[in-house]
Amino acid sequence: MLFDFLVPQRIIFGPGTTGRLGEEAGRLGRKLLLVTGRRALEASGMLDRILNPLSAAQLEVTIFNEVAPEPTLEVVEAGLEKARRANVDLIIGVGGGSVLDVAKAVAGLYPAGGPAKEYFEGRPVEKQGIPWLAVPTTAGSGSEATRNAVLIDPDTSRKQSIRSDYWIAAAAIVDPVLTMSMPPSLTAITGMDALTHALEAYTSRWSHPLTSALALEAAVLLCRNLYAAYSRGSNREAREKVALGSLLAGIALNNARLGAVHGLAHPVGARYHIQHGLVCAILLPYVMEYNLVFVEEKFAAIARALKIVPPETSSNVAARRLLSFVLRLRERLNIPAKLKDVGLRPDDLSFLAEAALPSGSLAANPRAAGFSDLMELLQANL
Ligand SMILES: [Fe+2]
User: Fold this and answer.
1) Ligand 1 midpoint to CA 108 (Å)
2) What is the predicted pLDDT for the residue at 334?
3) Ligand 1 centroid, distance to 126 Cα (angstroms)
4) What does the pLDDT read at residue 38?
5) From the CA of 277, how far away is ligand 1's center (Å)?
6) 142 CA distance to ligand 1 middle (Å)
7) How confident is the model at residue 10 (pLDDT cuts 50, 70, 90)?
8) Residue 7 — left, alpha, or beta (φ > 0 → left; ψ -120 to 50 → alpha)?
């Protein structure tokens, strides 16, 4: 057995841990760029919760609040310019996956030189960036634990990752209280993204004992608590468990990679401008069905851990029971059943399947999937 395992230097988890932001940031730098979304943070009243500990620690804060969902290379360039002008020594990202990915890319490329596009197109990242600290406000992307930033090239609409082991966060503060203001629809799609991470990492060709332990626990936490967090956003216990599930799934995916859902999700999301979590939520059961006979034992292990089947149930039946559970969960979260419902058009299928083929996530899928297999998966979504 051979494996590699990379995690943030420090992970601080729990309700109220945002209060430790000043102390943690002060350990890493003095002048920081706070990367956040356009309005979400102020609108949800969280800005003070973030700024107060930073000012109490007497840190110099420059705010960059221009990150929109599904960020482009241009946003990273704008963040880099602002960071360089303010001569910062630390980046803090407070937001969902898009914000954290931009914060990560800005920190990683800060000393690198050259346009972000060169790195997007494959130039290796050869230098350590400046430290960055992740504060997720959604429970789904897992970006606080990963070394990749998913970005879109506005010239080609191509969506892919820049990744580097240097880009792992110096610290992640995961405070479930910050996720409590998410509306139900965002809770649903970010949570289903996290569940997809857990299931794909668990069944990936590169899974190993450390990632499997985390992914299994993440899958159980998310399956048991996502609907409760969705149906009553003030349910603190459910929010905490979903946030924990998302974090564990993020660590697992960072070390085991993903699968065909994520292989297809990037071209589909970029083509129709659909939120990543929504694409994943729709595609997940299709890919589970496609993979089922190859990962029967693994799906069955999750079903048994969830106690949705009696212990003596055969693996085939238990694995199918997990698939029904996920289908039912998706329905209860009011997520559409087909990509057609969010814009998939028949004449785009071959373009999308072709665009998914080079994906590293697809390469990790437990069952090989070529062009015709991807076409079938997409065809079933019409
Ligand atoms: Fe994802």
Assistant:
1) 21
2) 98
3) 26
4) 81
5) 6
6) 8
7) very high
8) beta
Q: Helix, strand, or coil here: 134? A: strand
Q: How far is the CA of 61 from the centre of ligand 1 (A)?
A: 30
280 C-alpha vs ligand 1 centroid, how far in Å? 7
pLDDT, tens digit, for every residue of 344-382?
A: 999 999 999 999 999 999 999 999 999 999 999 999 999
Q: What is the rounded distance in angstroms from the CA atom of residue 23 to the CA atom of residue 325?
A: 43
**Cα 54 to middle of ligand 1, angstroms:** 30
The b/e string for 50-62 (b: 16+ C-beta within 10 A; e otherwise) is bbebbeeeebebe
Q: Are 276 and 361 in contact (CB under 8 A)?
A: no
Match domain 10-179 to its CATH number in 3.30.830.10, 3.40.50.1970, 3.40.720.10, 3.40.50.10090: 3.40.50.1970
Q: Helix crossing, 184-203 with 276-291: angle to 10°?
A: 40
Give the distance (Å) from ligand 1 centre to CA of residue 11.
20
Is CATH 1.20.1090.10 correct for 184-379?
yes
Q: How far is the CA of 330 from the centre of ligand 1 (A)?
A: 16
Is the pLDDT higher at 238 or at 158?
Answer: 238
**Domain ranges, ordered by start, for the chain:** 10-179, 184-379
Condensed to tens digits (0 to 9), the pLDDT of residues 142-200 reads 999 999 999 999 999 888 899 999 999 999 999 999 999 999 999 999 999 999 999 99
pLDDT attached to residue 44 = 65
Distance from the alpha carbon of residue 276 to the mean position of ligand 1, in angstroms: 7
